[in-house]
């Protein structure tokens, strides 16, 4: 009988026992992280005002396997393992010989992959006696995920939300409140960093770089408050590796292995979460894959940015990391995929791109929404605007396979659902969605401000 399976479900006992750390398998090590004041490599004590030691340890670890604490696995059981689907109806609609699989992270209570790291971060902070966490959020997914994790571990959560998303997505704020967190629009008048930006431009749409400055400033100035970041950092990518670890098992259940692995990339965590375990297999001599990270044309970090040392935030409070960047003062236009508006890219993803192990593409938003709608009409799930970038890439790859009469197995990360983003879909249906480009002069200006690191 022909195999007709639609979804590959694993039992709770198959939730990975450890995270996979790709730093153990890199052909060349990452460039050191530098102190923003001295330009010298930082040590763990430099990060201690912001993060618990356990997370600092993970940030610099080169251990391949890092055990997932039982209380974290216990919470993962609420939604993990997440399902892996074969997109049979989409394949049929496209008439492609390619097999398309997707890992669906929208089944978490927050509706995206972000709780995978939020829960781990809240756990380690709680272990070290931290009672308050401060963070930023773009589209609101990270803020609601940390709010959720804060409620599980009894931690107060304060969230600075990028102004444009704060105005576009009032329900996200309500969700954060429901989980007991406080959310304000960024830039705000509550911080030095926010006040400086507001003085320059009272109508600014804000940016993740600005919101990070606000949250870092508050955490650095108070003893009982730590900072949490929802993407970019090594420990966040580490936590997301549960996605790819499960997917490896599920692909085996389907008797398949991906030729192409795709994820949308804001700071790089959902892409890495799916792709790194497969890249790790490849680096250890396993089958080759093509790993593709997709970014928006309006914030094209890897396709138009520089690979250079830069700050993680606008006010230059964070350490300097070597990454693809559009410059820390770059403010992207207010397009709909709020979760993809960061000026930088995770150092690990950047490094692998630089080594030729990761490919980057950028797309305009209307064709992504078009394919997001096609996906919803065949597969039933409404993708988050960010995830439509991955959907579009998967469809593009499937149509290339059709044109070339190629057998190909495509796996992508459906990082979240779009139930809180229906205003963006309404704009799409009303023809009000514009294909925005980044401002080339703005990019030139912000890149000219990259710090001068002679090393
Ligand atoms: C935040 C978010 C992203 C982008 O962040 P990464 O760290 O690059 O994964 C993508 N998709 C969804 C649904 C998100 O919430």
- Which CATH class of the domain at 7-14 and 69-111 and 235-448? Alpha Beta
Major sheet: order of its strands? 1-4-5-15-10-11-14
Number of helices: 18
What is the SS-derived class? alpha/beta
**Number of E-type strands:** 15
* Percent range of helical residues: 40-55%
Radius of gyration of CA atoms, rounded to a whole number: 20 Å
- The termini sit apart by 62 Å
Structure description:
With 455 residues, this protein is of the alpha/beta class. The protein has a domain at 7-14 and 69-111 and 235-448: 3-Layer(aba) Sandwich (Rossmann fold), CATH 3.40.50. Helices cover 41% and strands 16% of the residues. The chain has helices spanning 44-47, 53-60, 70-76, 88-94, 115-127, 141-153, 163-168, 170-178, 192-200, 208-221, 234-253, 269-283, 301-304, 347-354, 365-379, 385-403, 422-429, 440-448, and strands at 7-8, 18-20, 65-67, 84-86, 99-104, 132-137, 156-162, 182-186, 225-227, 260-264, 290-296, 306-311, 320-325, 359-363, 409-414. It has a seven-stranded mixed beta sheet, sandwiched between helices. It has a four-stranded parallel beta sheet with strand order 8-7-6-9, sandwiched between helices. Strands 2-3 form a two-stranded antiparallel ribbon. β10, α12 and β11 form a beta-alpha-beta unit. α4 (88-94) packs across α15, α5 (115-127) runs parallel beside α6 (141-153) and α11 (234-253) crosses α12. It starts with 6 loop residues before the first strand and ends in a 7-residue tail after the last helix. The mean pLDDT is 95. The structure holds pyridoxal-5'-phosphate (PLP).
């Amino acid at each position: 009988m022909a195999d007709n399976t639609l979804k590959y479900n694993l039992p709770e006992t198959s939730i990975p026992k450890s995270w996979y750390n790709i730093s153990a398998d890199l052909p060349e090590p990452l460039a050191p992280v530098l102190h923003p004041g001295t330009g010298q490599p930082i040590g763990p004590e430099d990060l201690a005002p912001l993060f618990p030691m356990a997370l600092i340890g993970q940030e610099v670890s080169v251990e391949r396997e890092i055990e997932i604490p039982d209380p974290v696995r216990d919470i993962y059981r609420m939604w993990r393992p997440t399902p892996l689907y074969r997109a049979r109806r989409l394949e049929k609609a496209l008439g492609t010989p390619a097999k398309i699989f997707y890992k669906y992270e929208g089944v978490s209570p927050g509706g995206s992959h972000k709780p995978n790291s939020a829960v781990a971060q809240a756990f380690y902070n709680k272990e070290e006696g931290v009672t308050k966490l401060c963070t930023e959020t773009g589209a609101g997914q990270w803020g609601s995920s940390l709010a959720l994790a804060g409620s599980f571990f009894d931690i107060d959560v304060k969230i600075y939300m990028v102004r444009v998303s704060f105005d576009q997505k009032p329900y996200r704020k309500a969700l954060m409140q429901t989980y007991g967190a406080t959310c304000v629009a960024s830039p705000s008048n509550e911080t030095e960093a926010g006040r400086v930006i507001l003085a320059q431009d009272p109508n600014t749409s804000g940016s993740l770089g600005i919101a990070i400055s606000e949250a870092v400033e508050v955490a650095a100035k108070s003893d009982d408050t730590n900072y949490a970041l929802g993407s970019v950092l090594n420990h966040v990518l580490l936590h997301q590796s549960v996605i790819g670890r499960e997917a490896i098992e599920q692909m085996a259940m389907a008797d398949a292995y991906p030729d192409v692995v795709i994820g949308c990339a804001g700071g790089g965590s959902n892409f890495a979460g799916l792709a790194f375990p497969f890249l790790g297999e490849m680096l250890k001599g396993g089958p080759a894959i093509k790993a593709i990270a997709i970014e928006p044309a309006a914030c094209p970090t890897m396709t138009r940015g520089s690979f250079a040392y830069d700050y993680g935030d606008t006010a230059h409070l964070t350490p300097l990391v070597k990454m693809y960047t559009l410059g820390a003062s770059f403010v992207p236009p207010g397009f709909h995929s709020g979760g993809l508006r960061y000026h930088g890219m995770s150092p690990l993803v950047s490094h692998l791109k630089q080594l030729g192990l990761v490919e980057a593409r950028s797309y305009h938003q209307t064709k992504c929404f078009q394919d997001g709608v096609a996906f919803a009409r065949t597969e039933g799930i409404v993708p988050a605007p960010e995830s439509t970038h991955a959907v579009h890439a998967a469809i593009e790859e499937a149509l290339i396979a059709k044109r070339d009469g190629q057998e190909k197995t495509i796996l992508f990360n459906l990082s979240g659902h779009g139930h809180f983003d229906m205003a963006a879909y309404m704009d799409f249906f009303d023809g009000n969605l514009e294909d925005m480009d980044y401002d080339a002069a703005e990019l030139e200006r912000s890149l000219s401000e990259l710090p001068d690191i002679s090393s």
